[in-house]
């Protein structure tokens, strides 16, 4: 199996996942498609952490671009040995994979914290903006009858739970793919770009 081809496959998957993270995080800023809550600063603190845009998004786009570029056979090599240059390129992809690990890890952590704390909303009991589910430590996720405590934005609990869950899953997949590329990059760097040296 060609290590460069595997890296390219991982890169394209990360590209798609990173774009999905950016979209999901952007939607968190606009509950029910409304912009007034963002302009009035009525968003939860974990919504504003840019974990999907910066972490699972741009920090994962960097390794994605590196991995996709590894498939190109434009390495000049070192000391006249083209295989050496390709091996060095595969080993350098490990550094890019670590950037992806950091970005996806940040996305996972913030998404988990956002799910645990619950949304920032206007409640009918306190008649104020607060975090009504903070003390439940995520238990509110299974207590659907309590979700109605949030009056504004409408359906904010469903909105947050859905998008934070999506970001958590996407970040987890990105983390796994970057970890796979670390192994692939080390093996590719040690064994050469391809297991079969006759493969083009």
DSSP strand tally: 3
Helix count from the secondary structure assignment: 5
Number of domains as seen in the coordinates: 1
- Any idea what the shape is? elongated
Specify the helix fraction band: 55-70%
Quick rundown:
With 200 residues, the protein is mainly alpha-helical.
Please tag this protein with its features:
200 residues; mainly alpha; three-stranded antiparallel sheet; 5 helices; Transmembrane 4 L6 family member 1; transmembrane
What is the element layout, followed by pairings?
Blueprint: H1 3-28, H2 36-39, H3 51-69, H4 82-117, E1 121-123, E2 128-130, E3 150-152, H5 156-191
Antiparallel strand pairs: 1-2, 1-3
Helix pairs in contact: 1-3, 1-5, 3-4, 3-5, 4-5
Describe this structure in words.
By secondary structure, the chain is mainly alpha-helical. The protein is about 60% helix and about 5% strand. The protein has one domain (about 1-30, about 45-70, about 90-200). The chain has helices spanning about 5-30, 35-40, 50-70, 80-115, 155-190; strands at about 120-125, 130, 150. The chain is elongated, with a radius of gyration of 21 Å. Mean pLDDT is about 85; it is low at about 75-80 and about 195-200.
